[in-house]
Each structure stands twice: as structure tokens, then as C-alpha cells.
Amino acid sequence: xxxxxxxxxxxxxxxxxxxxxxxxxxxxxxxxxxxxxxxxxxxxxxxxxxxxxxxxxxxxxxxxxxxxxxxxxxxxxxxxxxxxxxxxxxxxxxxxxxxxxxxxxxxxxxxxxxxxxxxxxxxxxxxxxxxxxxxxxxxxxxxxxxxxxxxxxxxxxxxxxxxxxxxxxxxxxxxxxxxxxxxxxxxxxxxxxxxxxxxxxxxxxxxxxxxxxxxxxxxxxxxxxxxxxxxxxxxxxxxxxxxxxxxxxxxxxxxxxxxxxxxxxxxxxxxxxxxxxxxxxxxxxxxxxxxxxxxxxxxxxxxxxxxxxxxxxxxxxxxxxxxxxxxxxxxxxxxxxxxxxxxxxxxxxxxxxxxxxxxxxxxxxxxxxxxxxxxxxxxxxxxxxxxxxxxxxxxxxxxxxxxxxxxxxxxxxxxxxxxxxxxxxxxxxxxxxxxxxxxxxxxxxxxxxxxxxxxxxxxxxxxxxxxxxxxxxxxxxxxxxxxxxxxxxxxxxxxxxxxxxxxxxxxxxxxxxxxxxxxxxxxxxxxxxxxxxxxxxxxxxxxxxxxxxxxxxxxxxxxxxxxxxxxxxxxxxxxxxxxxxxxxxxxxxxxxxxxxxxxxxxxxxxxxxxxxxxxxxxxxxxxxxxxxxxxxxxxxxxxxxxxxxxxxxxxxxxxxxxxxxxxxxxx
Length: 667
What we know:
667 residues; alpha+beta; Beta-Lactamase; 5 domains; five-stranded antiparallel sheet; 21 strands; rod-shaped
């Protein structure tokens, strides 16, 4: 019986059984006295049968023997009484100690009879079964077992084997379950059996919770896509991985169990030193968060994202690192693609910004020299070059380098005449001018007849794009570099994009030059008009006469004239030349505004004209675009001034077509 001291039993045994030496002495003395007594009695009987007198010595011996027997008997009675008192005290002490243990034991103690009926129970049993002792006594114990068959089988085995240790699940009176471990001893007393039960419910629940946690862990480890791993912080050897290790790495879990450090071989050689260094730091810091490459069993490279966290002991020391490894190959490829797209977008934005600036700079000034300088400087931001030229046919076989720029620019030197080429002397140049297509040469040494291309022999990479505006071929843009294999199709594409606004700017510069040629003539005609206006204003008395003269000049002039109100732009009069140029009859325009007829292609141009007139000065030879009745837009040299007509502030306007000239002669 657990928890019961054996000291009372020892004392009881010593009281019942004196020391062996003392017992042996008493036995020898008793036997000796008995033998002497028997011998003396036999001698006495012998003398009596013969009728002889008893010798005095024999009588004295007999009396001494009887005295010794009486003495021994008295001593025995005294010792017997003393031993009885010792035995009774020992029993009482043992009973009290047993009762104290029985009542105060933390384990439940039951005394059962042969039918497993409770005959006695301690207070701990009351707490275990949830029932008071008086109600527990007399109950058959199997009523508290959840599995009565298990109890019956165990009870029969106890009676047969006399001892049993096991566990069981009991049901308390409040229907709650309690788990116990018990030890049972049969026949401690005849027909009485002792059972000691210990409540292990919390331990069992903890074990079940651990089992459930282990099961959940295993389920999680089996079903997650990431590798769940665990390594020893000291040795850095793998302790556990789930099945995803095989899926992601292409290697078996058994191979890692056989060689716990073989995971290091998975790491890409270029990443291995860095990753292992970070892993060593993680055994001290407890944190690991790295993205790196691994090499699968067949040589495929994959990207993984590995994170680790510490498991510490009670003293706070890191014992293990646990974490996950997620394959992010697709994500990494997507990130690289996004980065590439961003780089392309940034390059496209830079390219678009350069083209925007180039277009803006090409339209700031219509003078040809300014256009050439702006074009070649803008080209440098899009295509690197050593030498760039704008080659323009001048009629016949002659080709003129209308613009030229070197990079780096040479130190200031005396101006030199523009480069002039003869297409008939270079079959390569002749082919470029005839085909009027874009050309890209990675290495000019592989191009036949390149040496005949005057002024370009030193260039190793070269490209050319045609300059076309309004369907008219104006020439080509020549771009070269001394480095071989520098230019790509992307450089050619950028040059082609710049060639579009460049061709328009060159064409506008030519128109500007043409307009300037005829500007002086228009100025003279406007001067005549102003003098006529002055003559009309000299005399108020001759107003009607002057008006008649003005009307004659107005009607008969070959130049289109119109008179419109200042604010509304409403037509008050037009001459025959206006009707001829714009296709409207006089009756169709009188009373209608320029906005209704949509004569101005860009209404903002008229607003600029009004702003100029408000400053007090006339407008002379402004290039603008006006629309005819048929919808045709004509480029017009426009002049205007404020006048008073029929008591209103009006605008007297002169518009005339620009003469058609040979564009080649304007250069």
C-alpha cells in the first residue's frame, strides 16, 4: 500500500517475537529443569515402589527443582504480561498511524469485499467520486466505471493474481469523467481488498491535448504548400521537414534524415555563402528572412522565400529554429517582368519627353538655321552620334548638308561652307536618295561603296531616315558614330519618330523663307492702302468723294479685301477678289460673322490678331490659315488695321495667297 510507513509493523513483530538469543536461553533452561524434574520424580517413584526411605539429598533436590520451576513460571508470567502490554501498544500505534494515513492520503483508498462492494473509503475518495462517504459505502464500485466490462475483467484478474496496476475512466455522480491510475491488492485481510486510486485527469487531458496538437501539426504540415522545417540551433542540422520538401526541392525527406546537413547543397552556389552566414546569425538573433535560389535534383533553378523563428528553453536560450520555405519562382519572374516593364515605361517616358521637347524647340523659331540646330541637338538626346547631318537634294545630282553637328563639338574655329555632295559620285548615296527608306548599318566596313560616301568615311556605325512632309521627300537624316555595332533597331525607331516633326519644321521653315520673300511686296501694297486711307481722312467735307474713291480702289483691287466689325467679326463688305478667292458671293457673307462661316481654321489666331490691334499697331504679313467655302484651307499672308466704317470700329483686312515657288531655290 503506497504511502503507509512500515515502522509500526516492525515494532509489532519485535513485540511478538523476542530476540533469538534470549529465546534460546529460556528454552535451554526450561528443558534442563524439566529433565531434572523428571529424573527426580522417577527416583522418588523408584524408592516408593521398593518401600525404601527417600534419601534427604533426593528430597532436597526435589524441593530445589520445584522451587526453580515456580521461579521460572513466575518469571515467564511477568514477561508474558509485559509482552502483552507491548503488543497492545504496538497494535494501537499501528492502528493510529494507519488511520492517519488512511484519512489524510491524497490518493483515494477503498476497501472492497469479494463482490467489489465498498466497505470503507477515505475523504480523498469522496472528492474523487463526488459522493459522500456514507453514500459511497455499500456501493458496488463498477457503477462508477465508464466501461463496466473492463472493470469485471480486471476484478476477476485481481482475485486470481492478487495484485493489479492499471488505469480507468470513471464517471462521477455529476456525470463528469475522471481518469485514474490505480493499484489493487487482494486479500490484505481475509475477504477484504484494498484499491488505491490517483486522479490523473489533468495529466491525461494534457496528454490528449498534446496528441491533438501533434495531430493538428501533422495535418498542417502535410497539407500546406510551404516547406515546414526545424533545425537545431547548435548543430544547424535538420530535425524535421514535411512532404512539401520533396515537391519543391525534388529530393526525398529520407535523404535529409540520412544527412541532416544536406539542405546546404540545395542552395545555389552564388547564394550559399550569404545564406549560411545569415543562418548562423539567426541562431543568435532568432530571426531569418531571406530570398534566394535553390538548385533542384535535376538542375532546375527555383526561387524560395525562407523565414525562421526561434524556439527558446526556460532560460531564454535559442534551442531550435523553425520556419517555412515558400517557392516564389513565379512571383520572382513576375517581379522581374514588372521591373523590365517599368524600365521600358521609364525609357518610353524619357523618349516621349525628349520628342516633346524636340517638337517644341522645332516650332519656336521658323528660321532654317535655328531649326537645324534644334533638330540636331534634340537628336543627341535620342541617338548618340559622332556626326549628324541633314542631307537635302538641291536639284540634279547635287546634295547639300543643310545642317551639321559634331559630338563632341570642336573648339571654336572659322566658319566653313556647308558640305556639298554629288550623288552620281557615290553609288551608296544615290541608292539611299532613290529608295527613300530607313537604313541601319552596324559596321560600315561590310558595306560596298562606303568609301565613296564623302565626309562619312571615318564612321563605323550609321543610320539614315527619310524626311517626308505632306507626301514630299525633303531629304534624309544622316547619323553616324565611330564605334562599330553601336546602333540597334531601337535607335532607328527613335530617329524615325524625330524625323516626323523635323520634316514638318523644315517644310515650315521653307514656307517661312518663301513668305519673307513676298513680304516686302505685300508691305508695299499695304502702304498704298494706308496712303489711300490717309487721303480719305484728310478732309471731312470730301468724305463722299473719298468714299467713292475708296470704293473704286476697294472694288477694283486684285487683292482680297474685307471689312468686318471689330468685336463680332461680322462682314460689312468684301470685294470681288475676296469672292473669287474664298468662293463666297458678297450676298452670302454680308451680315454673317467669321465664326458662323468658320473662315479661320484656328479661331485663336483671330484672337491674337485682335490683341495685336489693341496695342495700337497694324498687323503686317502674318502667316495664317483661312478656310474657303469648299473647305479648303489656304496658307495666307494676312494684314489688317483698325478703321471707322459706317460709324463702327471695324477691321480692314487684306489676305493673299503665297506665290508658289520652287522649294529648292529658297535655300
